[in-house]
Design a protein that fits this description.
Elements lengths: L7 E7 L2 H17 L4 E7 L4 E7 L4 E8 L8 H11 L7 E8 L13 H10 L4 E8 L3 H5 L3 H8 L12 H11 L11 H6 L2 H7 L5 H7 L4
Parallel strand pairs: 1-4, 1-5, 5-6
Antiparallel strand pairs: 2-3, 3-4
Length: 220
Amino acid sequence: MNHHPYSSGVAFIFEGETEQIFYERLLCHFNGNHPEFSYSNTFDNVVNDFISVSTSADNSVIIRMNSVKTITQVTHSADWFNNNCKKVYPGVRWTIFLCYDTDSHLADISKFHEGDWLTLRKKMTGRNIEIIDLAARAMIEDLLLYDMEGICTYLGATHQTIPRKGSGKNTLKQFFREYGKTYHEGERASDLIWCLDMDRIIQCSEIQLNLVGERCFPLS
């Protein structure tokens, strides 16, 4: 029996803080595209974290986020989900987004169905639970590079094609250095990420970022 006023729940599990900042920005973007929804964040002192809720006349979605920070801690996210999502909101159907880097443009996503990631999936499976992979092309920075114009604007640089220098992270580091600045990850990347054109990134990315909008701001 559902004891909560939520029609569904969405849980994000991130490999790092930069991913979390990116998806927080993405949620705000989708909220802007859905004025029929109200979107709010409340700090929960019990779990020492924010809880987000998107609500329309027909739907109310509870949104929770967990950042792993180190790959060795990935299986603990199952305990976080079971204790802070599934048990706290009984009867709610959940979508779990696994947001991680593939670390290589050629990486096979199947490797994330093995080892610790497989253990994580097994611990979170169950009725009314959907798991969706949102694997970055290589690193989350590779997604940011889809909006080179926005990055150049942020740096005050002439709009140009940013030359690849290895990984997306290394490319940004070297490009920032050319303009006397330092690329930072995590919370310190927030200002850059908020300057980017999310529609352009959604359109260019092979990752199904649109599913975030569909699950967090459902039309029916």
